[in-house]
């Protein structure tokens, strides 16, 4: 049997004010839906910005025929964007750490001795520290009992709704919460484009770079 959810909601904005709704009904897949999914749908469907706290109240699951497509039905037509720099032999990412070694462990010419005539193969070799190229600092990097990369799901890094906020380093190196306040960043991957990537793999890259303030990180 089809399921629908009936609920009230309250949405409060970071710049003041709020909106409320009563006795909303939406079609869902399955027998229940988390409050967070309902909040996210309302915010996205109404195209709301600068949303702070959201509340779902008096939620009730009803057995009723669907009126339209369930709001939690997944649609897999997204675009993936690779944010990684290319790792090359000798690339220095962080001054003081060794550059990666990328070479042949066994080249094609030397491999011929292991197989019959006319057969060859290649085995590459890579040695590098984990802080190389475009990398992720997982909790374990700072905290002994924090999760390492093997314990963090790929869903934390892929198939994310994202927003790009541009803060040119030519204007400021300090990125504060004020740069975020006029943007909707709830449940989004926030990509801050400073233009500092123009200094990638140069001496200038390592010092006097843009940074987040504590307030921006907590926002």
From TrEMBL:
Q: Which GO terms describe its biological process?
A: L-tryptophan catabolic process to kynurenine
- Cross-referenced Pfam families: Cyclase
Database matches in InterPro entries:
KFase/CYL, KFase_sf
Source organism, top-level taxon: Bacteria
* Gene Ontology MF annotations: arylformamidase activity
How is this protein named in the record? Putative cyclase
What lineage is this protein's organism placed in? Bacteria, Pseudomonadati, Bacteroidota, Cytophagia, Cytophagales
């Amino acid at each position: 049997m089809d399921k629908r959810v009936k609920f009230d909601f309250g949405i409060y904005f970071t710049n003041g004010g709020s909106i409320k709704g009563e006795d909303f009904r939406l079609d869902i897949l399955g027998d229940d839906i988390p409050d967070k999914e309902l909040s996210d749908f309302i915010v996205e469907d109404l195209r709301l910005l600068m949303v702070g706290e959201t509340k779902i109240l008096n939620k009730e699951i009803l057995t009723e025929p669907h009126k339209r497509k369930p709001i939690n039905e997944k649609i897999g037509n997204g675009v993936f964007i690779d944010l990684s720099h290319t790792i090359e032999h000798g690339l220095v990412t962080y001054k003081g750490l060794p550059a990666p070694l990328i070479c042949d462990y066994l080249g094609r010419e030397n491999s011929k001795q292991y197989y019959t005539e006319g057969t060859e193969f290649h085995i590459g070799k890579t040695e590098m520290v984990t802080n190389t190229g475009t990398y992720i600092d997982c909790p374990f990097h700072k905290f002994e009992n924090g999760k390492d990369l093997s314990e963090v799901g790929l869903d934390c890094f892929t198939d994310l709704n994202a927003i790009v906020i541009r803060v040119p380093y030519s204007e400021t190196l300090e990125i504060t919460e004020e740069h975020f306040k006029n943007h909707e960043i709830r449940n989004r991957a926030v990509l801050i484009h400073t233009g500092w990537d123009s200094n990638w793999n140069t001496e200038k890259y390592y010092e006097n770079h843009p940074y987040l303030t504590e307030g921006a990180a907590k926002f």
